[in-house]
């Protein structure tokens, strides 16, 4: 099913604030917002964005870190943007190693972007992930339609999430490209007046639900109260996002022409293209993408590149040609995003220059489940906040990278996660 | 003297679900709380009575199937919102529904929002409205009657007035909606209320405490019954029984459970247990080597699932309902695609009753759904099949795998799959675990990656002979048909089956020792009878089903 693109220039005239005021909405519905978009003051006023991609079943470290000497097979699709790419060797999930989880690669997703892990095979994070932290930080000054976009392809089978709203509160992924298209772009087809009424109706329902949830929580035990509290937080977020979607600025936003079929190659392509549009049009500035499940699940093959073995079994077969083909194909999918972003001019650079895309993995190599080393690649300078084009050889905890990303995106924190404060000075300008 | 209601906050130490905890169970009522339960069969002084203990009931959301079934029953619509709006997947792990008992995420709340809007506009208002006028009086009546069904219990006065106030607001500026449209917005709001979405039918009623346990009230029992047996909301008969306090004795609960099992609504929920139990519920997501199995497409996968489901339903609801039959019967329901797998001559897409070759096919474990889901991409997988049955049919836990797992030799190295696995698991790091479950898996070596029968593997004759210690004795067998026959008669296996069913009913694992008395009671009866419907009935009248522990910090009105 191909959905053709539409021009999404919106020109709503009603003031949502007025409507909410009249409905007697609570203060939480109207956070501190400016009528115009507030862009971060970097690179001529264009916003910084961050995308955290997590792949699975490990890499070939030798091949991976030969990228800048010109000789990587798996990272070959990133060559067109070579000067914007930094590879990082020597970081690992030290917090997991410290607590005896060195070989828990299949269970490491809760740690990937949070820098913490509660332990065990079905553990959680102990804090919000860096994408959530950066998204929350941005939300203090600007109200985006989607403050955080969590996406996945074949990511919801055996594993855990990489994005966490808070300790033990995972952010689920959108894995359906059709659903994402509808969510991001469908209101463009609706006449303004109808849209206004729908928005007003939604706002009143959300307002009711907020009070309803508070009442419901009254007699519950503490653990169950937390569940309702999380639900209430989500309702508040929807209220804020509703406000944002009706305050849409005049920036022209062409919905992409994508095939929203469920099959993986089409779905990957669609997801990355839609993500590119969402970033370029400032629907969102922070996103995560999980590619394939962890948890050691079976039943993933790649016939479109001639790899018919099960991915997990293949990974356990060592550094084979087929495994390398899969790795390269996955990097080629990220390259779809890079190409779209680099094609959009933003001041003296491109949207890609104003982004940082980080690519990590749940383990070092596919056969060992070892998390003491993870191979990272970063693309983009986040609007000049990061140095690029390096092959870094470090020795430390991945928390440092997470903190670096947060710092680059304007969040002055000294630590992301349970331990290991500090950032990577070679990366920050 | 009238006992004034007073709030009691429960502050007992939380027990961990995994560790075994010694739980002091008391058969007699504690003097700490006023009065004992009214049911003379529960908590009496009979030393042979089942100890009165039960686990907690954590707040959890409706899963996708429950959501779809519930909205169909509630609103008289034909929609499947979980599919239309692509709800985030229900993640099942050992029946603990971790994703549903945990916290909701904003993506999911947004999807509920979209679904509620669509459902509200499709709802059959004519059937839902209890009155014909378009005044506030009728709106209030609507809220009350719809509310009782939507929230699965009567609304409190506070809830009633909040909803009426919300209705008023939608009629007024700026929304200015007409009567019917306002009712639809009320429906839209209620479908997103936690009282609808979460399984916690806590009403205004005073909690009944017995032995520091709460006896579920009528509405809670009604919901537990209907979500267990129908995966949907209580029907009007159940709600009426709850209203009249006719769910307070075991006999009353049993009568309802039997009625519900006799309804067609129980077939799919009961049959789907088997997909979760034997872990082939994710079959649609499994991909295989298309060069080895070019016919393994969506249609075939759907047929495999449909076959197993129909097989199970037929035995339980239209046949002798015995555990043994599930693992020894050779009659199944297949179409042409499945006919290719089973080497049977069938024409057409519809599943038809068919007798299969009894030396190759004899029950669930020799059917395509299990074999394919637990098969390899291009061949058998004895470790996967064996470990699944080790955990799920013998209820035995597995330690984690070792740190570095050496590669399995590819078929080009020669030998059968079994040969190569035996070499692999002959490694000292592997044998501790693999010795436990590979022998079970080797029984399935005659079945390839999608369940087709084979006598040769990599050009060499298959050896499917193996041994297993079961019920304290070593048993030898040759092939999956023989293994199925042995498992079908095993007390150990039947007891494990009963335990798994209780987990399915409670939507969680056993809680320390608290559920063990109920497990023992149910298992003992089932080992003798092998009757699956009676197993389901026994679960509904057990302490674990009818009672719950208060949760830490919970406020009870006494």
Quickly list its features.
heterodimer, A: 429 residues, alpha/beta, seven-stranded mixed sheet, 12 helices, 13 strands, globular, B: 558 residues, three-stranded antiparallel sheet, disordered N terminus
The strand line-up of the biggest sheet of chain A is 4-8-2-11-12-3-13
- Shape of chain A, please? globular
Low-pLDDT sequence parts of chain B: 1-45
Beta-strand share of residues of chain A: 5-15%
Count of distinct strands of chain A: 13
Which percent bin holds the helix content of chain A? 25-40%
What is the rounded Rg of chain A?
21 Å
Taking pLDDT < 50 over at least 5 consecutive residues as the criterion, the unreliable ranges of chain A are 1-43
Question: Taking strands numbered 1, 2, ... along the chain, how are they ordered across the largest sheet of chain B?
Answer: 4-5-12
Amino-to-carboxy terminus distance of chain A: 45 Å
Q: Main sheet of chain B, how many strands, which sense, barrel?
A: 3 strands, antiparallel
Oligomer: heterodimer
Description:
The complex is a heterodimer of chains A (429) and B (558). By secondary structure, chain A is of the alpha/beta class. Chain A has 12 helices and 13 strands. In chain A, strand 5 and strand 6 form a beta hairpin. The longest helix of chain A has 26 residues, at 192-217. The relative contact order of chain A is 0.24. Chain B has helices at residues 64-75, 81-84, 98-101, 106-122, 125-128, 136-150, 157-171, 179-190, 194-197, 218-229, 236-243, 250-261, 267-277, 298-318, 323-326, 336-342, 368-373, 382-392, 417-426, 428-442, 480-489, 491-506, 516-529, 532-540, 543-546, and strands spanning 7-9, 60-61, 198-199, 208-210, 213-215, 331-334, 352-355, 456-457, 460-461, 465-470, 473-478, 547-548, 555-557. Chain B is globular. At the A-B interface, strand 6, helix 6, helix 7 and helix 8 of A face helix 3, helix 4, helix 7, helix 8 and strand 13 of B.
């Amino acid at each position: 099913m191909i959905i053709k693109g539409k021009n999404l220039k919106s020109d709503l005239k009603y003031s949502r604030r007025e409507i909410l005021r009249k409905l007697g909405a609570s203060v939480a519905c109207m956070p501190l917002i400016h009528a115009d978009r507030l862009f971060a003051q970097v690179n001529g006023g264009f916003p910084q964005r961050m995308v955290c991609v997590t792949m699975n079943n490990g890499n070939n470290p030798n091949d991976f870190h030969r990228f800048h000497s010109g000789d990587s097979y798996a990272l070959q699709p990133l060559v067109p943007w070579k000067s914007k790419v930094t590879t990082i060797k020597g970081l690992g999930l030290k917090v997991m190693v410290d607590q005896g989880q060195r070989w828990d690669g299949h269970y490491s997703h809760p740690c990937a972007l949070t820098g913490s892990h509660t332990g065990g095979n079905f553990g959680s994070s102990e804090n919000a992930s860096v994408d959530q932290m950066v998204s929350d930080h941005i939300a203090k000054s600007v109200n985006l339609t989607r403050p955080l976009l969590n996406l996945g392809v074949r990511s919801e089978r055996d594993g855990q999430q990489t994005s966490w709203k808070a300790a033990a509160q995972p952010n689920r992924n959108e894995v359906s490209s059709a659903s994402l298209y509808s969510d991001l772009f469908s209101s463009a087809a609706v006449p303004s007046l109808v849209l206004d009424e729908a928005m007003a109706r939604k706002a009143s329902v959300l307002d009711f639900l907020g009070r309803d949830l508070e009442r419901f929580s009254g007699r519950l035990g503490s653990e169950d109260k937390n569940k309702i509290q999380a639900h209430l937080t989500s309702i508040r977020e929807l209220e804020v996002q509703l406000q944002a979607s009706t305050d849409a600025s005049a920036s022209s936003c062409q919905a992409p022409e994508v095939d929203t079929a469920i099959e993986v190659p089409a779905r990957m392509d669609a997801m990355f293209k839609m993500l590119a549009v969402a970033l370029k049009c400032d629907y969102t500035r922070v996103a995560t993408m999980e590619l394939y499940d962890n948890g050691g699940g079976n039943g993933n093959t790649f016939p479109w590149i001639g790899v018919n073995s099960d991915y997990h079994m293949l990974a356990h077969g060592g550094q084979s040609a087929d495994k390398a083909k899969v790795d390269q194909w996955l990097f080629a999918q990220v390259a779809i995003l890079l190409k779209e972003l680099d094609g959009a001019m933003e001041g003296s650079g491109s949207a890609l220059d104003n982004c940082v895309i980080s690519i990590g993995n749940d383990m070092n190599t596919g056969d060992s489940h070892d998390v003491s080393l993870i191979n990272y690649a970063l693309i983009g300078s986040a609007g000049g906040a990061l140095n690029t084009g390096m092959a870094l050889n470090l020795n430390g905890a991945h928390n440092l990278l997470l903190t670096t990303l947060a710092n680059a995106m304007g969040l002055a924190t000294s630590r992301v996660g349970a331990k290991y404060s500090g950032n990577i000075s070679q990366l920050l300008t | 003297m009238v006992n004034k209601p007073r709030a009691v906050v429960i502050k007992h130490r939380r027990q961990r679900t995994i560790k075994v905890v010694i739980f002091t169970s008391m058969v007699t009522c504690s003097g700490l709380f006023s009065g004992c339960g009214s049911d003379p069969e529960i908590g009496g002084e009979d030393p042979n009575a089942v100890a009165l203990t039960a686990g907690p009931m954590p707040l959890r959301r409706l899963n996708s199937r429950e959501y779809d079934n519930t909205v169909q029953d509630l609103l008289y619509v034909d929609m499947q919102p979980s599919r239309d709006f692509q709800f985030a997947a229900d993640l099942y792990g050992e029946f603990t529904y971790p994703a549903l008992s945990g916290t909701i995420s904003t993506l999911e709340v947004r999807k509920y929002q979209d679904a509620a809007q669509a459902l509200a506009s499709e709802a059959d208002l004519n059937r839902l409205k209890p009155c014909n006028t378009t005044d506030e009086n009728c709106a209030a009546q609507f809220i009350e009657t719809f509310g009782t069904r939507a929230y699965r219990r009567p609304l409190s006065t506070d809830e009633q007035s909040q909803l009426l106030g919300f209705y008023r607001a939608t009629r007024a500026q700026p929304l200015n909606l007409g009567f019917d449209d306002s009712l639809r917005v009320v429906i839209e709001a209620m479908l997103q209320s936690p009282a609808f979405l979460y399984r916690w039918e806590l009403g205004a009623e005073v909690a009944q405490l017995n032995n520091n346990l709460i006896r579920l009230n009528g509405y809670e029992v009604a919901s537990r019954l209907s979500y267990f047996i129908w995966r949907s909301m209580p029907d009007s008969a159940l709600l009426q029984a709850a209203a009249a306090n006719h769910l307070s004795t075991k006999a009353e609960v049993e009568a309802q459970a039997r009625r519900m099992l006799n309804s067609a609504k129980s077939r799919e929920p009961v049959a789907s247990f088997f997909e979760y139990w034997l872990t082939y519920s994710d079959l649609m997501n499994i991909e295989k080597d298309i060069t080895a199995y070019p016919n393994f497409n969506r249609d075939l996968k759907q047929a495999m699932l449909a076959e197993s489901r129909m097989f199970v339903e037929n035995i339980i609801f239209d046949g002798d309902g015995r555990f043994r039959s599930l693992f020894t019967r050779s009659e199944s329901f297949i179409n042409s695609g499945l006919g290719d797998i089973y080497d049977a001559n069938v024409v057409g897409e519809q599943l038809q009753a068919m007798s299969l070759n009894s030396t190759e096919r004899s029950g669930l474990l020799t059917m395509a759904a299990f074999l394919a889901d637990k098969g390899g991409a291009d061949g058998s997988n004895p470790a996967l099949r064996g470990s699944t049955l080790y955990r799920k049919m013998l209820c035995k836990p597995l330690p984690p795998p070792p740190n570095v797992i050496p590669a399995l030799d590819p078929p080009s190295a020669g030998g059968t799959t079994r040969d190569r696995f035996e070499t692999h698991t002959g490694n000292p790091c592997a044998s501790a675990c693999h010795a436990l479950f590979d022998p079970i898996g080797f029984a399935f070596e005659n079945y390839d990656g999608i369940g087709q029968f084979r006598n040769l593997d990599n050009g060499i004759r298959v050896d499917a002979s193996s041994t297993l210690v079961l019920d304290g004795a070593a048993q030898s067998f040759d092939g999956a048909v023989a293994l199925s026959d042995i498992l079908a008669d095993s007390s150990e296996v039947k007891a494990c089956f009963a335990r798994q069913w209780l987990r399915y009913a409670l939507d969680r694992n056993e809680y320390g020792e608290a559920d063990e008395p109920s497990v023992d009671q149910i298992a003992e009866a089932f080992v003798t009878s092998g009757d699956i419907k009676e197993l389901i009935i026994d679960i509904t009248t057990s302490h674990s089903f009818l009672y719950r522990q208060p949760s830490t910090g919970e406020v009870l009105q006494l």
